[in-house]
Every structure is written in structure tokens, then in C-alpha cells.
Amino acid sequence: MTPSAEGPTSPGSESGAVRQLLYTNADRVVDGVRTGGWQILEQSPALDDVTASRLLALVEPRLNPVSPLSGFPTPEEIANAARRYAQIPTDDGTVLVHTAPAGADATGRPNTMNHVVLLADEERPSVCTADLWRSPDWCVPFGPDEVRATAMPASNRIRAGQSVSDDSVSDFMAVPGRGAVLVALAEILDGVLAQRVNRSATSVDKTTTVLLPVPSTDEAALWVGALQRTCAPRTGRLLGFSTLERVGTERDLEALAASGIDLACVPEQDLAGMPIHRSGLAVVDPQAPPTSAPASAWARLVAAMTADLGAWVAGVEAVRDVLDLLEDHRDVAPGWPLAMAEACDPGLLAGRAEELVGKAVEHELVACQPGAIAGNGYLIGVVNDRVLGSAKTEPGHWYSRLSAVPVSAPVTGVVTGLARKYVETAVRNPRWLLDPARQVSRRAFRCLDAWSRSAEGREALVPLLEAAVHAVSQDPRETAVLIMVDRLVRDGVNPPGARTDELLIPVARALAAEQDPMGQRARILGLDLDRRCRDALMRLVERVLEESAGAESSRTLPWMSEEVIAWFDGGAVAPALGELAAQAVLIELAGLIDRPVAGPAAATAERAVKALHGVVGGFELRPDVVRLLADFAPIDCLEAPPPGWRNVWDVLGPALLREPDSPTSARICREYLARRGHPEAVFAQSVFNRFSVPTAVCLVVLVRHTALMTRYSVQAAGTYARHILLAAAILDGDPLVARSPAVAMARSKALALLILVVWNGQQVDLPDAPALPAAVQNLDAALDEDPSVLAAPGETGLGELLPLAVTRVFWRGRGSDIPDEWFDSVDQDLRRMEYAESRSNAQLRNCDNTVVVIARSWAAYLGAGQSETLRAALLERMGGAPGAERWLDKRVLPAKEASGLRRRLFGGR
Prior knowledge:
This is GTPase-associated protein 1 N-terminal domain-containing protein. It holds the Pfam family GAP1-N2. By secondary structure, the protein is of the alpha/beta class. Helix content is 50%, strand content 7%. The chain has 41 helices and 13 strands. Strand 9 (241-242), helix 8 and strand 10 (263-267) form a beta-alpha-beta unit. The model is unreliable at 1-5, 10-17 and 896-900 (pLDDT under 50).
């Protein structure tokens, strides 16, 4: 079968026009202007200047043949002169650069004519580009006059020449030893050509440049023509080659390795005695043909094709016949045409090396699946019969074939057939399904995963999974079904979800159970399951936990085994699995009970509280978890606890008392009291003799935020303070919050307020509380240590309580030393106060010094900046009593150097 003499064309502004340019050194007149030197002599109208500049970068105008032309060559010598014919794949497309000697220029220097052609992206070209060698359409003028007058071919085509043809190449390959050379070229170049085919781009970076020593450029063209006849012409356009490259120095080798040339033909003498040890370069010497066995599929097929002349001729014809059946060759790999030819005509090549050829054929038919094959039922049938026609039932056979599928092969057609064949044999082989030592191939995994996700795969897997269940049903182990599912999942199979869940739900129940009386859970945990299988079990355990929430009225969390959580990848449970995530983080928190560290424990506690929002229904927490949350959970994360958390106040109460000054704590307490129908204000208006522990906690917290010293009336402050003492008494009996510093501080503030209430003339009845006597005894020291106990954040001023109490303690301290003019009024005033004092509890009597301590602490709290304001306000309230100013300065606002906390607050005076 003889190819058409028509060469490649390229679409442009003119229908069928080739985009090309001529580049040479010429002297000429253009539009009346004389120009000289290297220039574009002519350029296709369809070729824009930007693209033309990129093409010129590929031109090497110097031509240095081994045997240059004489000074006065004959026409025959010119016609047969050495030329450089290069093909370079680029992002613009495949570029042909033809460089021929052009004699001397007008100054006598050597000149060349460089004819550059940009090929079109044709879907199914029929002519190999090597066949254009010595085409009559290449511009090859000689001498300045001819150069000046030359023009691009009028036909706008580059036709095939006569030097490289089927006949000439066959004669060339008939020489013994040349087949081994061609096999070596295919072996090295297979990878880069396959990549360029798969990526649909011509400029994929090469990894190796092959140096092929040749005696002439004509023989170089024949080598390229032979190689291109073993693949599709469209694929051959992706090969960078040159018929003449000189490599006299290391710099030449470096430049060649960095060029777009994959196959560089060099004069034999250039490599004589020149060892090549540079990475990225390989030498294939026709004078010393390689003897190693080929490894790539294309090279093996080329080896069979070059076994003898008959195989060569048959192969060339068969490749052409196969390609005629396809409408598009752009995604045809180098070895696919030969593989398909052998599959269509078994024995065409296999008789030469049957085993090697058989494996190469199957590899290529699986690795490459041209899109155009879908429209050819004959080729599809041939591929399926060749690859899938085996009757073998051993799953290992099919798995090994899946494992050989290249990662670049699409999971369609024959690859999906291989995937189905494997699964069909695997599900009927219990030994294979339950083999714990079976290794997984990433290539096979990719194919099985893609197939099992497809509509075809999902439908096929429904009965296949049942076959697998039946196959392992005779195994005595209760974990047999789990192991079977895990092995399929490891392989990449995605079994039907609903049925798989049914099979695995008993396993999930065993993992979620609190106890393991029969040891089933321990046996499950002894399995090394795939991550995806464990994820499926986590999802099912979540379902079991949610079911338990609906079946049980009250649950105590966590109850799951710590070993189960660790088995689920160290507790790395997705937050979306709310129930399981809560169990995991609670178990993690419980593990800190013997060695809690504040920072990490607080972070874990916060995650635990957040995880509880994923728990369905009502629940309680274990005492050890409650203790840790109470000690470490930040109050901010407890502001909106899950509604089903029944013992939340076992955590919330201690946490509030741990952070009583937090605005979040105050907000939580006010909202809680409001929901209970007892807003904070009611505790300053009504009298309660008992209330719940949560209410007591809220009052103890809120007293830290309530400005009782300055913004409440005497009666309201006394009512509120009495409730604080009652709350403190209630909390003293609760082991979770007993001895809380917040309770002691609240009690101190309440006692101080109630003492002031008595000194304001109102009777106070203290609640019955064992801790009160000691608290009263220690009150002075407590206030002296921390005066801020009396105040709410930001509270300033004087209020109603303190001025009258200070005045009365001043007068009572005078005893009988009261001026006559003041005696009656002071006496009556003190009697009213003393009557209230006598009617109040004994602990609140004779607290003269405590009133002074309270006043002094308030002054310390306000600080030196407000000292004069406080002094003036107290003196005004004392009405100019003689000796009051000196008494204040001595007892309340001492001028002597302060000590302790007062010294730090406002310094010595």
C-alpha cells in the first residue's frame, strides 16, 4: 500500500495553505529600499509575526556537514548535498526546519536557506514526516541570485520525496542488525511519545536525547522513516528529530540535551573516541547493535516486526490498515497500531516471539484506548476477545492483569472488562477473599475504584456481593464477612452501601457495646482493617449510638471501650459523627484524670463540651468526666449546654464558681434565674428561706457583679446580702463546690453589707449556718487582704450604707466625750442603731472596728485618686462634728505608711 504523494498541509487564511517562512542571508530591494543580511525572505499571510518569531528561534542557520560542497559544485552535487532536516514539537504545533546549503552570499560568506513549516493539528495524517526528506517542494536555491529570486512553493504543499518511501525503508531494514537498532530507539523513546499522546501536547519535556551515529544525512532520514512506520504518522509528529547535528565538544552535547530534539543523527566520526557519560544522553550505535532484551511494549512489537523482511512488510501494511479504520489518531500511543494489527490478525507478529508479543499486545490494548475506537464495533470486539476472552477462574490471574494497567490508561472499555472479570472470580474464591497477606496494587485499585463507582459497576456488584457472602459463609469465624468486605474495599471495590451496612451492623453493635462478654469485640479489634472499612464502621457505630438514644431514657457517657476509640485511628473521629465523636473526646478527657495539665486539659474539656452538642436525647456524664469538666472547662463553652445534659449543673456550678468574675458567668446566671421565674431583682425585694443549688451558685456569682455598696437602698442591700449568706450555707453542704474561694468571698461581702445594715438601724436575722462565726471572726483580715471583695466591677462612689455607719461608729467611739450641743441628737441616733443591733444576731453586735475596716477597705478599693472626694463626702455626712476630720484621717484614711495590699493599691501617705 503506497502512501499518497500529498504531504502535510496547514489551515490558514487561505484554504489548505501551509504556514511557512523562508529565512536566509540576502541582498535585495523591497519597496524601493535595499536590505541585506539575515532576514525573512517570505512568510505565509496566515503566519502572524509573533508566531514567526517563535519559529525563528528554532532555526540554526549554520550548516557544518562532514563533506562541504566545493567552490564550484555541479547541480548533481548540490542536489545530493547534506542537509539538516529537523522536526521539533512545540506548543504551537509540530515544526519542520529544512536547512540546505545556499552557496556564498554577496560578500562571499557561506549561506543557507532555512525553510520552516508549521504543521496543522491534523486528526489522521497519512504521510510520515520523514518521507518529506528531499521533497521537491523544499526551497534549495544556490548562489545569491537564486536566493534573491526564490519563493515558497506555489502549490502551498510539501510533497513526499522519493528518498524515503516504503520500498527504500524496506530495503534499508533488510540489512542484518538494523532491527536491533530500531528496537533500541523504540525502547528509549516510548515513554516521551506516550506522555505527549496522553497529555495532548507536543512540548512535553523529554528525559533522554538519543545520539544515532550515521554515515550520511540520507541514512539518518531512513532511520527516522523506519521508526515512524512502526507507529501512527500522527504519533510520529510528536518525535523531535534532526538528520544532522555536530557534537565536537561538551558544550555541543549540553546544548543538544537542552534542545527539543529527541533523536539526533550525528556523523559517525563525531562520536569516534568520544565517551558519552552525560546524564540525559544515550548512544545507539548501528555499528554495535544493542543485545539487551526490550522491556517496553512498543519495543517488543518492533522487535517482532523487524525479525525478518516479511514481518516488516506485513507490519507496515497492517498498521496502515488498522489506522484506516480510525477517524482520529491524536490519542494513539506508539505501540497501539502494531498491537491492534496483531490482535486483528493473530500470528502476524507473534510467531517471532509469541510470549513477549502476547504480553505487549495486551499491555497496549489496555493502556491505550483511542476515543475513535468507540465508533468501530469490529475493533471493540477484537480488543475484548483478545484481552477478556480467557476462561481462567483464578482471581490472581485477572488481578495481575489489572495491576499492569498503566496509570495513564482510561478506565473504560477493556479496563472495565478486566475489573469486572477480577471481581467475578474473586467473589467465588473464599481463600482469595480471606487472605490476610494479599498485597494491594495501586494500579489495580485505581481501576476497581473507578469501575465500582460507575453505573455499570454498581449494578453488577449487587449480585456479586451476595456471591461473596455465600463464598465465606462456611468459614467458622464470626469475622469472616467483615474480613471479606475489608479485602474488597482494600482492592478498591466500593460495595453496595445498603447491603454492606446490613452485613456490618452486627460488628458495629459489638464495637459500640459497653461490655464484651463473648470476646467478639476483642477479635474485631485484632484485625488490621483498611481505613475506608473503619470509616464505614464508624458511621455504623454512630447509627447504633443514635438508636440507643431513642431506646434508653437515660444514658451515662462515655461507656464505649477506650480500645475501640484507639482502634478508630486514635480517636480521629469526624465531628459529623456526633455521638461517636462525643464518646471519643470524653474518653480522651477521662484519660487525663490522674495527670491533668491545665492548658491541655482545658483544651480537651472545651472540645468535649462542644462534642456533646452532637449527642441525641438525654444523657448524663460519668463522675470522673464531670470532675474534669468542672475543673477545666472554660466557662465560655458552657454558656449554651446541650438541652439533654441532665447533670449539667454538676459541671456548670463548679465552673461558674471557678470563674465568678467572667461576664459570661454573670450572663449565664441571670438567664438561668430569669428562666426559673426569679430574676435577680427579686432577691433584693422578697425573702426566701430556701432554694436550689443552681440558684445558690447563681447568687454567689452575681454578688460579684452587683453594686450593693452604692446602688441599692439599705433594705434592698440587706435583703440581697441575707440571700447570699443562705446561698453560701447551701453550697457549704455540696461536695462539688465546698470550700470554693468564690463562696468565701461572697460570704465576706454579704457579712460586711449586713453589718453596715445594722449600723444603719435595721435588724438583721442571719440564716443558720455553721460557717458564719468563723467568717465573722475572719472578716477584718479578709477585707484587709482584698478590699475589692466589697465592689462590683467598675463600682465607684459612696452610696447610702457607708456614711451613716461611719458617722455612728465615730460618735460611739467618743463615749461620754460628746459636746453638750450634740449630745441629745447623737444619743437618740445611737439608741436607734443599738436597738437594731440588740435585735440582730449576736455575730453582728459590737462590730465597731469592723465598720472602720469596711470603710478603710472601701477607701483602699477606690484608690488614692478618689481619697479626697471620699473624705469630703464623709465629712459632709458627719455634719461638721468636732474631731471628725482628725478621726477620719487617723482611722479611715490613715496618713501613716500603708502596708499589705492597701500599700500596693494607693501607696503610703
